[in-house]
Amino acid sequence: MTIQLAIRGGRVIDASGERRVDVGINDGQIVALEESIDGAAREVDAAGCVVSPGLVDMHTHLRQPGKEEAETIETGSRAAVLGGYTALLAMPNTTPAIDSAAVVREVQELGRQSLCDVEVAAAVTVGRTGEQLTPMAELAELGVKVFTDDGDGVQDARMMRRALEYGTAFDATLSQHCEVDALSEGGHMNEGAVSSRLGVPGIPAEAEELMISRDVALARLTGAKVHFQHCSTAGSVELVRAAKAAGIRVTAEAATHHFTLTDECCADYNPMFKVNPPLRTAADVAAIKAGLADGTIDAIATDHAPHTPEAKDMPFDQAPCGMLGLETALALALTELELPIETVLGLLSWRPAAIIGLSDSHGAIAVGRPANVCVFDPSESWTVDPAKLASIARNTPYAGRTVNGRVRHTVASGELVVTDGEAQR
Ligand code: DOR
Ligand code: ZN
After folding, report:
1. Structure pTM?
2. What residue ranges of the chain are covered by domains with CATH 3.20.20.140?
């Protein structure tokens, strides 16, 4: 058998442990894991590198349809593969919202032409207005496994209960943007000592924690699966820990910025640091890190939220929320979390893959599985330069920050889409 593509000389790491093998790929699949694969039609060098399952981002804003000036499915997927991702879950807060079969099909079709696997999260309610459920069963038949009104939480407890009950018929995951609007409205950053000093209206931790408390109760009531997006406070971590200990079916993610930045970053009123949920205190950052370390938080998500310079470069109180994440998450996690590499990769790859139903295609390096692979040098240090990002948008809060860990090659569905750090299309 002639191997079409061989990844040679790296340390293969996945949930089954670490091996020193070459990876052989034919027709989109991993076909060989051997000590040495010679004579492949094409070889990529992984010497000094980790060869891991492709990363899986369960929280990406791609902006298409409707805001293609900030990002498209193609440009977002290019940023993703440059960051080591081979699968994304596209959030439905587009214009129009992803709340109908027609829009789901449109995003899926554009996803098929992109550089990686683009999965679609559909809205829970029509137009994400919280008033009427979307045709969830019909959307599930198209392959939608996750429903969320992300950008907004489902405010009404009865509506959330109905969505959970309805979704159990097709084993849906309800992914919640945890924010009680009545407490967060009018706020622009974390409510606390820094917001008081700056005179900026705040968003209390309780706006997030109250919704998590409510949804833990609803998950218990309905037996349905609830996933908590971008948990940002120490109290949230504690609520998730207690819910899991009680056997309730909840999972949780933390966004990269919530364990790498604090509300002190807002001291210069720089809108690059405005995000929702907001950057919290150093104590919250420590609690998020502890939650990632002990498994309470299942996944690191990017909440990649592109905004054009025209939109983002506004006074702090008028600027939109959100920051880029796809091209920096792996390096930030490797640099900032004092965790073994396999734990970090679990948080970025196989654990989110399991939550969003991608365990058959992502999250493992094994013969017979689709070739979704990320090759990175864990010790290469580099400095984030917004001008060099593949995203159309430039709103990274990490400009000038030096991080360790650089993606060298990415293979998505068997195609070498990134080699030597360059996107191939
Ligand atoms: O900061 C954020 N930006 N938080 C969200 O929930 C939505 C996102 C966006 O779409 O820009
Ligand atoms: Zn959100």
Report:
1. 0.99
2. 53-355
With a 6 Å cutoff on the Cβ, whether 349 touches ligand 1 is no
Question: 53-355 has which CATH code?
Answer: 3.20.20.140
Residue of the CA atom closest to atom 4 of ligand 1: 276
Q: What is the pLDDT of residues 342-388, one digit of tens each?
A: 999 999 999 999 999 999 999 999 999 999 999 999 999 999 999 99
Q: Is 284 annotated in the active site?
A: no
> Which atom, in ligand 1's list, is nearest to the CA of 151?
6
Q: Report how far apart the first and last C-alpha atoms of the chain are (Å, whole number).
A: 28
Contacting residues for 409 by C-beta, under 8 A, at least 6 apart: 7, 44, 46, 373, 374, 375, 416, 418, 419, 420
Output the CA 208–ligand 2 centroid distance in Å: 11
Indicate whether residue 152 lines ligand 1 (CB < 6 A): no
User: Where are any strands of DSSP class E within 131-172?
Assistant: 146-147
Q: Is the CB of 92 under 6 A from ligand 1?
A: no
The overall longest dimension of the chain from CA atoms, in Å, is 68
320-338 confidence digits (pLDDT tens): 999 999 999 999 999 999 9
Helix axes of 157-168 and 205-222: crossing angle, nearest 10 degrees? 40
The strand pairing partners of 323, in sequence order, are: 304
Those residues whose C-beta lies under 8 Å from the C-beta of residue 38, and which sit 6 or more positions away, are none
CATH assignment, 5-50+369-423: 2.30.40.10
Lookup: tokens for 57: 């981002």
Please give the number of the atom of ligand 1 that sits closest to the Cα of 321.
1
